Amino acid sequence: MNEILNLLTGLAVGLNLLALGTSRLRLLIRAVAAQGVLLGLLPLLLEHGAMDWQLVFITIATVAGKGFIIPTLLHRAMRTANIARELEPFIGYISSLLLGAAATIAAVVIAQHLPLFPEHVGSLLVPGAIALILTGFILLIGRTKAISQVCGYLILENGIYLFGLLLIHATPMLVEFGILLDVTVGIFIIGIIVDRIQRAFDSLDTRKLTALHE
Amino acid sequence: MIPPFFFGSLACLCLAILSGRFPRLWLALVLSGAGCALISAAQVLGDAGNWAWEASFTLGCQTPQFLVDGISALFLVPVSVIGGLSAVYSREYWSDHHHPDSAPRGRSWSAALILGMILVLSLANGLHFLLAWEIFAISAYFLITLDNTAPETRKAGWLYLAASHAGTMILFAFFSAVAARTGSWALGPMRDQAALAPLFWLALCGFGVKAGLFPLHVWLPSAHANAPSHVSALMSAVAIKMGVYGIVRFSAWLPLPPGAGWVVLGLGAMSALLGIAFAMAQNDFKRLLAYCSVENIGIILTGLGLAILAMANGQAAWGRVALCGTLLHVWNHSLFKSLLFLGAGSVLHATGTRDMSRLGGLWRFLPWTASLFALGSAAVSGLPPLNGFVSEWMIYLGLIRAVAAKGPVSGAIVPSVIVLAAAGALALAAFAKAVAIIFLGAPRTRRTAPVQECGWGMRAPMLVLAGLMLWVGLFPAMALGPAAIAATAWNPGWSGNVDIPVFHLGSLHLLLACGLLAAAYVVLRKVSRNGLRDSLTWDCGYAAPTTHMQYTSGSFAGIVTRWFAWILRPARLVRKVRGQFPEKALYLERTPETVLEYCIHPLGRGVGLLAEGAKKMQHGRLHLYILYVFAGVVALGGMAFWGGM
Known about the structure:
The complex is a heterodimer.
Chain A: H1 2-21, H2 25-46, H3 53-81, H4 93-113, H5 125-142, H6 146-165, H7 173-201
Chain B: H1 2-18, H2 23-48, E1 51-54, E2 65-68, H3 70-93, H4 102-122, H5 126-144, H6 151-182, H7 199-211, H8 220-226, H9 229-253, H10 260-280, H11 285-313, H12 316-351, H13 367-380, H14 387-404, H15 410-439, H16 456-474, H17 476-490, H18 502-530, H19 553-556, H20 558-563, H21 565-568, E3 571-575, E4 586-590, H22 594-615, H23 622-644
Antiparallel strand pairs in B: 1-2, 3-4
């Protein structure tokens, strides 16, 4: 069981590097979607005991939300805004990749020093979660197009979700549901905002938002 | 019989706040409210003893508690007397006819101010005390800025508000610390809890800001000078006494840290001397009066510091004398200072300027104002047979007995006697200057409008105040009784008769007053028999003297301001007389508010620069904002990580 878990987490972390290294928004969204699907499957593996219908339901909902609904919304926003590439990032792709690699190493190091439960020590869950959060921040800080930043935000959220899996026995499913709903609604709103930014500034470049400061 | 009067007074004042638009109704309500408060205070100071009352409901999770003991009642008397008289005065001074916009507002706020002060004096719950304190502080702000068209007034208002809130912040810390350590917001004697002793310093700072203690007085001169005069009278005579009340009250209730007596004594002596030095240097007569309040607060605190020392050393003999003098000086200062401010208001009303170098020769035009102002000046300078002398004499008596007792503290008290005596002499000089420059001599500028004496609406309150001053001066034994009761409330261990030869003082004062009256009668008869003769004074042989060649307020005070130049730091602009055919010469002098301009302003500019620098971080770049969040999260994580290890 644990090996499959580690494999999935490792794949998700690997997708980070794809997200950091690409300039094409379509690929970026797909990477995030794939990551969402991988992570959505994890609860099934973590639950050693009986498969209750709640767990199955939450897995289906997570996979559907992260893997299909949110990417569809983002694709639509991209089409309405009529852009396909991130052209002038704050932090270049090579530097982003190097930063991402450094963040992953840092995540492993930090995870070794954290006071964890013995059952979590061997797994990649904690370092993976930290790596995802750091990568999300790198994308948020380093990209200028609103859609790339949304993807960064999603990766950040995936990291938090992964961390939350540590508490899967303690957290009621209803809370997980709430989080998922929040994220979906958040993306929905961001999609609308992206459209508005596009109309107001003729661009999705968030740097132009400085025109709004006092 | 206290509750009906006390709650009646609160109800009347609440209604008065609402009836600012109806001047007559308002006046009737304020006067009856003040009268009821006075009656309940008189009952406590008479034989009724303390009055305590607890509500059966809660307000903000606390039960409202009222406690009027000797100390509260002693301070309630000036609040009600001066509150009522300034209300009468304001009818003519700040009339609807001249100030249609601000007069109703002013009436409502002054009722709120009096109500706030009565509540501050009577509430015995920390939370409600703070609420009342805020009502009082905020309504004073709106009264100071009543004439909000003048930028100077607005500035003075802001300064007052800032200083007042700084003080209130300290008081919040003080009351919550008391509540945290005693487990209850209810206030009362806490002498037995030694852990509370350091909190006295907080109370001293918080209340000291309101009282106008020397380094904390920065707001006081400009606020008192720019407020309408009836408000200045109320503020200077009563509002700053709330700070004194706080210090007196909590020095009675809290256990005192060692050295508290010395600190209060030292601060008092410093305030007395420096306050009057600043007063001496002022050109604006209302600022002069305001600095003189700093001096008198200093005198009051000197006496209080002495009483604390006496209590710490178990010396009832001189401690009680000093405390009675202190508490009586609270009354006396509120009487003569309000008379002086009302007189100053009358001068301002007649001439439209506060600048003494534009006044002069007003005695002939304003005989009532001038004689009442002169009487108040004599009292504030501590001249017998007036009330100022009585209380200052008692404080001196306490000091001298402390020195004569040859205890462990006597040697160190000698300097404070000297400082106080110096302050008294300077006060006489400052008020000789004020009266001489404003009322004597010839007018320094040509007046465009005729100067008119104030009407009876303004004169009557001043006459009442002068009458009360004479009453305290000539019959000090009657005023000593309440002060002794308040002193017993301050330290219940001190009871019995106070050893002050106050009856002899009263007889001497009566004799002196009769002598002065007789002398005045003789002089007046001689003058009326011989007639007045107009002629020049000795003019150094100069052929064509002008009215500009009189002493100015600056030249009058020149010697003293040079002694104190190290703290006054007067700014001078001089263009000397040069050449055979000299051009225009110039000599301008301005005395800054040193603490404000050399300490508070640089500090404020530093904070402003820091804030300006911090503004650069707000540039509107979303990525960097996220970076800030990231840095914050990492820092928090680091703190949790390293802190947790």
